Every structure is written in structure tokens, then in C-alpha cells.
Amino acid sequence: MNRFAITGLSAAAALLAIAVAAPSAEAQFYNARRGEVVFVAPNGDILDYVPSGAAYARDRRGNRVLVDPYGNVIATEMRARGYYPRPPVRDAYNGDVYYGDDPYGDGRYAERGAVTGSIPRNAPIDRQPLDDQPYPQSDDYASIEPDQQPPAVMQPKPSQEPVITLKNKSKSEIVALQVFLDRAGISPGAIDGHMGANVTKAIYAYQQMTGETLDPNNTDAILEQLRLNGGLPLVSYTIAPADAAGPYVAAIPEDYAHKAAMSSLGYTSTTEMLAERFHMDEGFLKEINPGVDFTVPGTIIKVVNPGEAKAGSVARIIADKGRKQVFAYDNAGNLIAAYPASIGSTDTPSPSGTVSVERVAFNPGYTYNPKINFQQGANDKILNIPPGPNGPVGTVWMALSKPTYGIHGTPEPSKIGRTQSHGCIRLTNWDATELAKMVKPGVTVEFTD
After folding, report:
1. What is the pLDDT of residues 336-393, one digit of tens each?
2. Which of 87, 220, 250, 407 could form a disulfide with 80 if both were Cys (CB 3.0 to 4.6 A apart)?
3. Whole-Å CA distances, 4 to 1, 187, 220, 230, 325
4. Is 291 buried (19+), middle (13-18) or exposed (0-12) by CB count in 10 A?
5. Which family is this sequence assigned to (predicted)?
6. Residues with catalytic roles
7. pLDDT-derived band of residue 58, with 50, 70 and 90 as boundaries?
8. How far is CA 212 from CA 1, 100, 178, 396, in A?
């Protein structure tokens, strides 16, 4: 009998333990305007909230922009009908089909170009000094073209599967679904309570792995399986002194020469570190813990309960460029893990055919070489950028037999599967680490369209 046909715990009763907080004042303000405008970040991402501390200003073109306390442009306000088919929606789980360029839905991270720049300032910005606390070093340096979002739009192949529609599911019920998939070794990416492209792809990958049909609307059965395999999707966690102590860096600069001058590219905050540890979107971690000071040891917070990392021996990897997903198989051809990924772009596509893993490095540094990389700012010399989770390749580098290409982590986990790369395979740091521990040199990597 299909185990998802059974009726388990009462969804209403079980989900009381994982109820999320009400929207912030900024979110409520934004929701009131979302039918009229969207906020577009300089890299083309669409913001679905007004960041705390942001203020309005006008750029040189007269556009209304959001700026941070230092005067940096966070996003430009654009008319929704002129920039995007419809404005981004955070909590539409009542049977709506998700939208965007991605055939699997979720237009929150549609791959558009930059639309704004900077605004004039009358005084220089007084930047805080960077923390010089060391981060564990590695003498292995990656040398690739860094992953970033290009202006061109990549058109993935159409989905072969039917669209998945949820029926009146709350954010907490979607979190339960994401955690269930994550524990099975089918990553939904950063867990955030949204039914988007990464979750849809994970559902089909789960069915490929197990041969079972997963009904995402059967929350009772999902909760019952979670009860038998690790417990509730959200649990309490007490912030330890080591969590609060770090070490952390004050900020991560954009300029590579400034990055190279740092001793590490570590986490910038307790929330960033905890979010990655528990496979969460950082904003979602803050949302379900309103008003919490994460820097105080002994503070009890709610976190995702993702379960143990997947273990096994990977013999073959398929990087599906159309699906933006990586599949890992064992020697018998069984699917043992799947991960959402950012793979190439129209400007800098990923390789075709089959290559192999040559070496695996944990906590790698990054070598910027203007002769083989892009021109970053005014930098015209080779720069050795230190390791850290906020480095260009994150916490892991799996070098491929095609020079300058690899599988690696990222400093921006919530964008995985939703933006493009410069040819490499980019995963969340935790997914890349899990895969790297199952991979050895010689494993084949096949790129498919």
C-alpha cells in the first residue's frame, strides 16, 4: 500500500507547534502595494519585502529607490505591469499556479537584468572595519569564472511533468513538505515555506527515487512520516555561547581586492550561520522568531529539523541544465540524492557531454586571474581570495576534468535553482558539502539539456 494513502496525525493539531509569525509592518505595507509595483534589486532579483531600515530616495533618472542606511541602493520601484507579468506573491498557496520564466514556476527569482545603479551622495560612507578573526584555512584555491547573474535570460526546456497545485496549504504545511523531502535526500533548497520551483522538482525526484507517488496535499501522511523519521519539522534550539561568539566578519565587500585583503570570508551574523546549519532561508529564520536577539547565548529559538546528512557512494552525476537540478546515482544506477542547482547561462553555458571529478577540496580559497576570469573592477592582478562560506565558491570545490569548471557552494543559498551561473554547477553550501562527502575523484559528471 502506498504509505501516502494513510491518514496519520491531525494536520491542524501537529502544525500548532510550527505556526509562523504574522507579517512584519514592512511586509504589510508592501502587500498593500504589490498590485501596483515591484521592487527590483540591482542584480535583477525581485524583492518581496521592504528591508528593515530601508528608506526611499530618487536616483539620477528620477526613479524611486530603496536605500540602506549607508546610501547604497537596495532596489528600484518599478510598475509591475511594465516589468513583470504580475508582482511577486509570498503567501499565495490557495491553488494558484506559480509563474515566471522557470517552467516549474516560482517567479520570485526570475532571471532579469539590472535596472538601477546608484544615487548621488554628498558625503563619503564611513564603513566599519572588517573583523580579522581567522576562518579555517585551506591551501586549495579554485580558479573559475565567478557565478553571477547575467542580463540574458536562459530559456530552460519545458517541464515534462504536470503542474503541481496545492490546495489551501499554509506556510507551515509547506515547511513540513520541504523538511520531508530534505530528510529523504531530495533537497528543496533553502527551506522557506514557499511552494516554488525547487520543491516541485524535488517532488518528482522523490518519486523517481522511491517509485512512490507523493501527494503534497496530504499533510496528515507527510506529518506521520516525519513523526516516524526524526520528529516535527520545526524544533526548539538553544543558542550556544559558541554560536554567538562566531567568529564573524562585519561585512563582505564586493571588490575582489578588498576580499583578498581579508583573513576570511566567514559568516557575517549568527542568523546567517544558523540558517545554513539548519538548511533555512535566513529571512524565514527571522520570521519565525520575531523579536529575538540571536546574539544572546541561552536564547531558545525555532529552527528546521532537517535530519541527518545523506550517506553513500556516488558513482555518477547528471547535471540537468534544463531542470536546474543535479542527480547523484550509485554503482547500481539507483538515485540516492538530488539537489537544485544553478547551471550555466546563455552567455557562458556549461559544458556538454561527460567529464569527471578530478579532486575535492573542502573550504577552498579562490584564485582570481584577470587573464582567464572576467574583469572585476579595476583589478588587473592575480588575487588569492581567502576561504569561507561567503567566498565565491562557498565551502566546497569539486574540480572537473574540464579546466576552470567545477561543482561548488555559494554565499547566496536562497538563489540556487532560480538564477544562473557562469558555467559551473552551483549548489547550496550544505548540499555541496553533502554531495562532496559521497564523491571521489573519477566520478563521472554528465551535462544534459
Report:
1. 999 999 986 444 455 678 999 999 999 999 898 888 766 778 888 999 999 999 999 9
2. 87
3. 9, 19, 9, 17, 25
4. exposed
5. Belongs to the YkuD family.
6. 408, 424
7. confident
8. 10, 28, 17, 32
C-alpha cell at 135: 576562518
Cell of 151: 542580463
Compute φ and ψ for 30, nearest 5 degrees: -65, -45
Q: Which three cell numbers stand for residue 373?
A: 576570469
Q: How far apart are CA 178 and CA 171, in angstroms?
A: 10
Distance of alpha carbon 162 from alpha carbon 151, whole angstroms: 30
